[in-house]
Sequence to fold (265 residues):
Amino acid sequence: MPDEENDQHLYLGLHVRGSLGILRDGSEVFLEPGDLVFCDPARRHVLRPGDDCRMTLFRLPRCYVGVPEADLDRVVGVPVRGGEGLGALVSGLLSVLATEAEFRRPGIGDRLVRSLVDLLATLVMELRLAETEEEAAERTTDTSTAGTETLARIRTFIDEHLTDPDLSPESIARAHRISVRYLHKLFQNDGTTVSRWVRRRRLEACRQELGRTANRTIAVAAVAHRWGFSSPSHFSRAFRDAYGMSPTEWHARAASQSPEFRRAR
Fold:
């Protein structure tokens, strides 16, 4: 990326393939092919491309967009999903401009660029509006009705997706159209963290399944994998820390139906 006159241009990256992460709000968000991100050459450390990453970068003068400089600065580093809403329109148009030479001819190309500029201005305003609404929501306390209802919906969502190994703060926040920062704040106000809550619910699901005497021949590792634990050793340590015994010991007591096990249930 050229260093000269970077402050006079707006850069927009179109993720094409491979692994690309963005550091935002203390977490790393990974983009999928077709997703977009506003870039700043002075903050290259925000982007974490993998060895197989390919991204097409577009540059246009900031003055063309017709949006306040402050708003353009605020959207830098914000990921835009290219599979939905306005992001899909912008992503599709950029893909055409990048791959189809016939659409870059004088006349046709000029019209497409004008349409793109209008879409980008609208996209920036949409992102800023969402951010403003989110900031207002973040000012609410954990005792507010809005915060309580949001947390309840998130917990229900987590329970419905416990078996998904890709369940993460990023995927949870994305599904509820909130920032990862706000998601962490909701759980912090409730005295825990997102990761701890997910692990706790998964452990409870595993404990219940291993405790069913009808499943005497079920493999402990299979249960752990089904409920989102990718590492059997990590699952065993977490289970022992939570319940004071290994999952194998718990399963054996369930199968024997000892009085001590019945009291534990």
